[in-house]
# Entry
Amino acid sequence: MVNGQKANDKCKSYIRKKMMQEIIHVENIRKSYIMGRQVLPVLKGISLDIFKNEYVALMGPSGSGKSTLMNILGCLDTPTEGKYILNGNDVSKMEDNQLAEIRNKEIGFVFQQFNLLPRLSALENVALPLVYAGMPKKQRNERAMEVLEKVSLTDRSHHKPNELSGGQSQRVAIARALVNNPSIILADEPTGNLDSKTSFEIMEIFDKIHDGGNTVILVTHEEDIANYARRIIRLRDGIVESDKRKERVGERIT
Ligand code: ADP
Ligand code: MG
# Structure
């Protein structure tokens, strides 16, 4: 029985590898910051493959390089060395304008601090990426309402950020990340400013996004949050310390 289960898991893992489409390929990524005369190495050779519709939690102690890596994966920053292929495009060699274009198409970013514009309503915040994409106002608003509906916030569409709770603000930020239909959602400690009940509500939304076919990568400190994911990558001091996938839904990775 135990052997049967093992063989079954091995078989599933083989089928998954055959069927999976690589969406992120990073090879020996290094990132250093120059501080005065000193060079501070932060990422020290990271290689990873992430496949379409994977659900990944990135963990590791504070200062281990998680946000630096997320910013590179999200095309907000470029590596000092190494290769990054995003959905078949070599982004490690791209200029800023090309990076911005691929970021708008492929990536939705969610931050711990929500990063909403305070003077704009929820609807206007969500529609903002569509302004940059040049979409006419009527269509923008329709599309923004559609995604607000996905995060159950249509009744708050005209509220300003200071009239929203933390959980509602993060739902607006998630809607904004989804509005361009990106293939990848990156979230850097999305529940870091929320109480645990609200955090789990937010995680239910990430679950739905994953079920809808998106690739989801999130940074978290909390094991309970990380266990929503199907794969946990741990960084330590700028390198990958461990990288484990769940074979079964519900299994916990420690
Ligand atoms: P984590 O998200 O895992 O807490 P970060 O990626 O934010 O870690 O930071 C990793 C290290 O890089 C830290 O020591 C931090 O001080 C340093 N660092 C991050 N961004 C910069 C920057 N722009 N300039 C200089 N050092 C930085
Ligand atoms: Mg960080």
